[in-house]
Design goal:
16% strand, two-stranded antiparallel ribbon, alpha+beta, 61% helix, 5 helices, 233 residues, five-stranded antiparallel sheet
Length: 233
Amino acid sequence: MSIEQKDEVYVVMFFEEDNTNVVMEKDKLIGYDVQENSAMVYFPKSKKLYSGKIKKEGSKKKCEKKCKKLIDSQKTDVSSTEDDNRTTEDTDKSSKAKYEEQTSSLTIYLQEVKKLKLEFDEIKSTLVDIKNTLSELVQNQTRLPPPESEKKKIMYNDKNLVDVSASSTVKYVTQCMEILFTKEQTLDITKIELLRDAFFVKYNIAVSNQDETYEWIKNKAKRKCLDTNLNDE
């Protein structure tokens, strides 16, 4: 009995279909292919033939030892694969975290750009207001009365009526009337127009106010003549 066991040859078969390693007697192999080192094995339970690779041939003990190594190696490979998967997963998580961080930074940057644009628009609006104010000041400056030396001269009997000095507009009209009219003279519209022109130049009367001012001058002149005539009587 012991001699028969000693002569028995076992093999370790690897079946790729289900990724298993099995120790069995060599005489159970069918269609042994020496070149490919493969054979078929019939399994009664499933009633099917399965093709497998011979990984080891020898005594039962040696084949069982080899089979254990192969199974352990498979576990190591699975563990390594799981580690690789975990590493890939960790890398994916890290990449996702980095992406979210970059996205957050970009969002903050865009918010800052928007804020700067609003501030720029506000500064621009302020500058436009300043420009308009300065433009208005320049225009007003151009409307200022010209210096005395550049004013138009309104002459009567070699006297420039614009140069007549007076503390008020009423006194100015009165003094010009004394120059333009004598006691014997009646109201002359031509001289009233000279007074009007001199008044407009001296006090830089705007065109929009000239008609109203001229009526006021005529009334003052008429009143002056009337008072003078009454005094003479």
